[in-house]
Amino acid sequence: MHFRPAAPALPSRLVALFPILFLGLVALLTASLIAPKAHAADATPATTHTLIIDTDPGADDVIALLFAMASPEQLKIQALTTVAGNVPLAKTSRNARLAREWAKRPDIAIYAGAPRPLLRTPIYAADIHGSEGITGVKVHEPSQPLADGNAVDYLIRTLRAAPEKSVTLAMLGPETNLALALTQAPDITRGLRELVLMGGAHFNGGNITPTAEFNVFADPHAAEIVLKSGVPITMLPLDLTHKVLTSPERIAKLRGLGNQAGRTVADILDAYVQHDMQYYGLPGGPVHDATVVAYLLQPSLFRGRKVNVEVDSREGLGFGQTVVDWYGGLKKPANVNWIAEGDAQGFFDLLTQRISRLP
């Protein structure tokens, strides 16, 4: 019979280390599996845009402008163009210049545009935005003037000279300026990468009539022209903005940033949201136009679907309504990415983080 020698016994201290070594190996393997995902996420480039902002400030417009001007690494703002809307053109232009002054962005040119809609009688929203267009803060005449020239001419000149599909146009008010530019120079669509609009309503209902949202109602004929332009369009309607609401805590975080911009935004919001909270019975108020900037910076915060959208420009109860074929029953080509859902806390976290960068 042959005997195999017994294996030498391991030292007791080494045996005691086995559980520790095993756990360490598991942790190392887990980290190696997770690390590539983390690096991949970190390596994802931030969305960047060569951007023109068309606007009718307006309290929420001013917040949107401050938000955008605080994000220069992602939003390369070429100019602001102003239009009559929430208040007359002289006041929307002054308010855009105030936002520029508050953000300390003298590099951004501002061009005044259309003083009235294409066809309809002008309307304003002083009952919501106050007679000066900005609630909760004092206004003054900024020292830096408007740029020479007209906003419509600027759009035509700039978009014709731009590389193909290179310029994003964010539209925060009535769409009159772009409609005039498209009518005079249809070829400018070549320079447009996309249009991102605050406007319209479907599931939510309107805010100026039971069916119409203010920006579209203020110039539905312009909106018709823009929607038929063939340029990729994303719309952020009341369906979304009435789900992205302020709260006392969210406004307090802005006020607590310790900078003047945070206090200004908080003061504007405290006054601005009162109307909608009372009218709709909401627990907070929407910051409509600022959602456009959040979409440009972080589109993953939002969800929607591509649908066909048309505007009712006939006189009557439906005047200014955005007719949204949500279920595709009309079998028409989709012309709009219609945003219906968003991460409200993610929006306010992003807004607060960017406003913290300003003076």
The biggest beta sheet is recorded as:
9 strands, mixed
Overall SS class: alpha/beta
Task: Give the proportion of residues in helices.
Answer: 40-55%
The strand line-up of the biggest sheet is: 3-2-1-4-5-6-9-7-8
Mean pLDDT: 90
Number of strands: 9
Provide the low-confidence segments as ranges: 1-44
Brief sketch in words of this structure:
The protein is α/β, with parallel strands linked by helices and 359 residues long.
Notes on the protein architecture:
It is a single chain. The protein has 359 residues and is an alpha/beta fold. It has 13 helices and nine strands. α3 (89-103) links the parallel β2 and β3 (109-112). It starts with 11 loop residues before the first helix and ends with a helix.
What keyword list fits this structure?
single chain, about 350 residues, alpha/beta, nine-stranded mixed sheet, 13 helices, about 40% helix, about 15% strand, globular, disordered N terminus
Chain-wise SSE layout:
Layout: H1 12-43, E1 49-55, H2 59-69, E2 75-82, H3 89-103, E3 109-112, H4 126-129, H5 151-161, E4 167-171, H6 176-184, E5 192-198, H7 214-218, H8 220-227, E6 233-236, H9 238-241, H10 248-255, H11 260-280, H12 290-297, E7 302-311, E8 322-325, E9 336-342, H13 344-355
Parallel strand pairs: 1-2, 1-4, 2-3, 4-5, 5-6, 6-9
Antiparallel strand pairs: 7-8, 7-9
Helix pairs in contact: 2-3, 2-11, 2-12, 5-6, 6-8, 10-11
